[in-house]
């Protein structure tokens, strides 16, 4: 009997097993499950054999981590050796097997106060931002011949005024965007504008050291507030008193009596140009931000500093006071450059993070929409309560302007808070409006 | 014993505690109720128990002196203690939780109400701060009442300031003059014997002040007080700029093609970049090419046309010339035939043609004679021949001249042309006809004349000093011009001293006959100064028109009407004349 005469056995075997499976297909199968269990066991044993030493960080490393302090909350789930992106059966098996609870690092087992504080932080940081509809550029007004450096909206919300590097103050209709009036008189850039809500007066200040009071019934200058030693960069009206505060390059803010033109106070203390000044009705009634990278909160009655805030690293160019909340925000250059402060004592509230530019202007409206405009033309809109940006935009300079002329210098919301007026280095005034459904 | 003491009520009058007895009673309540002992004034341990105890305050000393058994510095009744304000070191302060307040120095010397943020907690966001409750996190605006209160308070403070500032401008503040006088009865306190001066009445009034008087004392500027201490800085120090950042901030130096004050060597590519020529590619409008193409085509077209026209004209001229030659040939042939005697009677047509041809040559008489040839032939023939001969001669002369012209050299031809155009004046010069143009500008060369007077005085237009100096005064030009040159050329050189000034002077001085200098020359010539230039005229100040005399008369008050006889005589003469007529 020769083996060569027989047919190959493999084929026969395969056919036999197929037939068996067909026969027993209806029956519940136990053998396969058994096989899987054994495979798991085998894998577990293998993993344990091979990777036992690497399940935890080596001792010195762990000790070092413990010395430094708690790891960031992101790293709480400790990285284990897991499968790669491939979806093979074995990798899924490994993932299923490895469900042992991750051993906590030693720092967490000893429950210090710091770790408790950190867990507290996690719980307290759960304020949800309110929804704000997006904002869209709705109008570009090109009428100035220089950088538009200041803008102010009239309390009646009928018109707004802009001051520019062409030394002219222009008054525009808010609804139609038409030019209503041009006021000439400054001999240098107009840096600050304010319209009084209790008088028919427009106040303006400029780099020519002049602070002017315009009578809007005659469209003439009726008063000059003389005394600044250098360019006046900012101006603010007191909401309840007949008092005007100007600040400028002579590192001082000056408080003027509106009617008598007398200089009531010189708020001295800054060591560099005061870039912005804001007034509010309750203490601190005057807030100044300066190029010496400090913010000062002033006691207006005494003319003295109440608090000096030194948190900013670069010069503070912009301030914004919330109309209804008892807080204000300040902006400077660099990272973590917009900060919110609680008002009477200037407590630090939080940072508006993510706008990496020189902040030239800040505005906030009553709905809690907070706007920051950068020197490189980046615009950000934030939720004022939580400090979360909900919209980031780029300023598009008008055609014909240089690449570097995409900066935003001034901004203001109108009285209703539904439109945002900005003035930029491309010599235009841009009106953004809320996109309501 | 202790239980009994606890049960019994406290004695109304505390017994005087002696130093050496009942120390347990004193110390026991401390152990039992520590709160009481802390609140109550520290009790001094009795003598012998004071190991480790230190007097802390003045109360511990009671009224007595120091405790010698406590080895610390003690100052009962502050005796011998140095004043604390001598140094500027601060005492170490501790807060309620026992932490050292390192920021005490930041709060030192600040005003009372000032908030100084000096701790790490001031850097922590408000939500994450543990030391604050929800009330402190609340950011409600103050109520209207509070705002009103703040406004009133501030307004009061500011109004006070403003009133102080504008007091100078208010009119009621003018000091009143001498109106205020008061009388004071004065009784001297020390009346040492003198009886006469018991009482005096003193009148007191203010000194009148000039309101416009400048201040008598110099207003000195008081130097500013020291500034408040700087606040603690709650930010990390500025980072050093990295190399990348520095590179980002690198501003390339300005390269100008026009200025290089420091004289740096600037590479050529930088110069080209500064030039800005390479920055924009030159874009030439297509229309330029179209325009030049059109111009070129039009130009060629026009040239072609002109050439064609010239060709045509040439052809026409050639044809005309041929016709003329033909005519002449005919004429000549006829003449030859006539001379030969075989003159065929010209037909009327041919005659008419011939006369017209002859008329072309401009001889009216010929044509006229030709028409009347029928009556007297011979005479007419003679005339015609003469004319023909003349014409022929002229022709020949012309031809000769042309030939000569053709054979002439270029220079001669140029001369010829010049002569034709009246440019050659050599003949005219030879004939003495040529005269230079007499233009003033070209004749006078200002360099010859007195330069300093000209150049110095032409500059200012205000001064009218053009004629205040003689024209040729003391200049070499004047000497050169003013020269007696009468007959130097024909006579000898010696006569008139060679014609020069010094020669003449020498000749005059040369006393040939030994007569000495003439004592008396011409009368009136002595007081005339020696002339060294041309004759100069002085302004005549004399009364030429009798104006001065007239004015004198007018001043003297002589009336014109007084010389009546002159006026009368004239009138009479006029009347006589009228009668005669």
From TrEMBL, chain A:
WD repeat residues: 141-182, 183-224, 225-266, 267-308, 352-392
Entry's Gene Ontology BP terms: mRNA splicing, via spliceosome
CDD domains: WD40
GO cellular component, one term: catalytic step 2 spliceosome
Alphabetical keyword list: mRNA processing, mRNA splicing, Nucleus, Repeat, Spliceosome, WD repeat
Signal sequence annotation: none
Pfam families: WD40
The keyword ATP-binding appears for this protein: no
Keyword Ribosomal protein found: no
Subcellular location, record wording: Nucleus
Oligomeric and partner information: Associated with the spliceosome.
Family designation: Belongs to the WD repeat PRL1/PRL2 family.
Function recorded in the entry: Involved in pre-mRNA splicing and required for cell cycle progression at G2/M.
Protein name in the entry: Pre-mRNA-splicing factor PRP46
Provenance organism: Pleurotus eryngii
UniProtKB/TrEMBL annotation, chain B:
Pfam families reported in the protein's UniProt record: SKIP_SNW
GO biological process: mRNA splicing, via spliceosome
Keyword Nucleus: yes
InterPro entries in the record: SKI-int_prot_SKIP, SKI-int_prot_SKIP_SNW-dom
Keyword tags: mRNA processing, mRNA splicing, Nucleus, Spliceosome
Compartments where found: Nucleus
Comp. bias regions, Pro residues: 224-235
Span list, region Disordered: 1-23, 210-242, 334-353, 359-402, 556-581
Composition skew (Acidic residues), residue ranges: 374-383
GO cellular component: spliceosomal complex
Basic and acidic residues bias: start-end ranges: 384-402
Principal location: nucleus
Limits of the SKI-interacting protein SKIP SNW domain: 183-339
Family to which the UniProt record says this protein belongs: Belongs to the SNW family.
Subunit structure, interactors included: Associated with the spliceosome.
Function comment: Involved in pre-mRNA splicing.
Name the record gives this protein: Pre-mRNA-processing protein 45
Species of provenance: Pleurotus eryngii (Boletus of the steppes)
Organism lineage: Eukaryota, Fungi, Dikarya, Basidiomycota, Agaricomycotina
